[in-house]
């Protein structure tokens, strides 16, 4: 069965599936944490290649901390907690169920 083509542009964090709890959503939120993007940037209409470039920057930042939230300095860890707590709350309000997503990955 042939896969549908990937979209050339991103719908934006506010319009993403699963309340934005996707890999692209994680890239955007992590970019907010590290100050790569302002927290107002949802990347709506961005080409996927541009998001990929942000992902490389995000990965370089995570590498500095061994890819662990617990290794982040206090200010970044606090920002991470705030951003992700709010994202989880909003995603649940939009119908995201982490149990369903987790069971789909089995």
Written overview of the protein:
There is one protein chain. The chain has four helices and no strands. The radius of gyration is 15 Å and the shape is globular. With 106 residues, the protein is mainly alpha-helical. It has a domain at 25-66 and 78-97. The chain starts with 22 loop residues before the first helix and ends with a helix.
List the uncertain runs: 102-106
Order of helix and strand elements from N to C terminus: HHHH
Helix content: 40-55%
Outline the biggest β-sheet.
none
Report the count of strand segments: 0
- Report how far the terminal alpha carbons are from each other: 22 Å
Mean pLDDT: 90
Number of helices: 4
Content of β-strand: under 5%
Gross morphology: globular
Question: Helices and strands: which structural class?
Answer: mainly alpha
Q: Radius of gyration from the CA trace?
A: 15 Å
Notable characteristics:
106 residues, disordered C terminus, mainly alpha, 4 helices
Chain-wise SSE layout:
Elements: H1 23-33, H2 48-64, H3 74-93, H4 98-104
Helix pairs in contact: 1-2, 1-3
Short recap of the structure:
With 106 residues, the chain is mostly helical.
């Amino acid at each position: 069965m042939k896969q549908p083509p990937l979209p050339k542009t991103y719908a934006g964090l506010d319009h993403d599936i699963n309340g934005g709890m996707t890999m692209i959503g994680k890239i955007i939120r992590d970019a907010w944490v590290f100050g790569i993007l302002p927290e107002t940037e949802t990347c709506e209409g961005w080409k996927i290649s541009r998001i990929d470039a942000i992902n490389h920057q995000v990965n370089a930042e995570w590498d500095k901390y061994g890819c662990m939230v617990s290794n982040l300095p206090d200010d970044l860890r606090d920002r991470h907690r705030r951003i992700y707590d709010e994202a989880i709350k909003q995603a649940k309000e939009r119908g995201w169920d982490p149990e369903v997503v987790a069971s789909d990955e089995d």
